């Protein structure tokens, strides 16, 4: 973000996601590097510096989310195997970040490591449907 935007109090999209709407039950997509401190190696691509964290404020938003929810049934996952191994009955909060930047198109997706949109939606619905008051699910 431009320096003048930061000085005016603007928050980047990653901060907005966690701070402006703090009670989202399920978040999935790409964007790990925008959640982690600058130069922090990516969990999936630790030797590829282009995927390192980019946050200039030094914050690790994944760690903050995990710490905030440490006494709740919350899980952070970053690959397809972890996501599909979850038992939705034992999960109330889920943060799934499957790529350092944007998710790949379906035809270009690594089917071994990255979940499909259908798989992500299925897990989300199975977690959210436990709420007796219903739920709102936005899939983009």
Distance between the termini: 23 Å
Q: Which outline best applies?
A: globular
Query: What number is the mean pLDDT?
Result: 95
Strand order of the largest sheet: 1-3-2
Order of helices and strands: HHEHEHEH
Q: Could you give the count of β-strands? A: 3
Q: Provide the gyration radius in Å.
A: 16 Å
**Tally of alpha and pi helices:** 5
Largest sheet properties: 3 strands, parallel
Question: Strand share of the residues?
Answer: 5-15%
What is the gist of this entry?
This protein has 140 residues and is α/β, with parallel strands linked by helices. The chain has helices at 3-7, 13-20, 61-68, 80-85, 117-128, and strands spanning 26-29, 74-77, 93-97. The chain starts with a helix and ends in a 12-residue tail after the last helix.
What does this structure look like?
There is one protein chain. The protein has helices at 3-7, 13-20, 61-68, 80-85, 117-128, and strands spanning 26-29, 74-77, 93-97. With 140 residues, it is an alpha/beta fold. It has a three-stranded parallel beta sheet with strand order 1-3-2, sandwiched between helices. Helix 4 (80-85) links the parallel strand 2 and strand 3 (93-97). Belongs to the alkaline phosphatase family.
């Amino acid at each position: 973000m431009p320096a003048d935007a930061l000085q005016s109090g603007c928050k980047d999209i990653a901060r907005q996601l966690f701070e402006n709407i703090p009670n989202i039950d399920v978040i999935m997509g790409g964007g790990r590097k925008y959640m982690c401190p600058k130069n922090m190696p990516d969990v999936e691509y630790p030797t590829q510096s282009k995927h390192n964290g980019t946050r200039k404020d030094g914050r690790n938003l994944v760690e903050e989310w995990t710490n905030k929810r440490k006494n709740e049934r919350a899980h952070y996952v970053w690959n397809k195997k972890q996501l599909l191994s979850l038992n939705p009955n034992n999960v109330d909060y889920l943060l799934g970040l499957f790529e350092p930047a944007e998710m790949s198109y379906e035809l270009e997706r690594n089917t071994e490591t990255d979940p499909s949109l259908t798989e992500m939606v299925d897990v989300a619905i199975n977690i959210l449907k436990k709420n007796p008051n219903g739920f709102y699910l936005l899939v983009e």
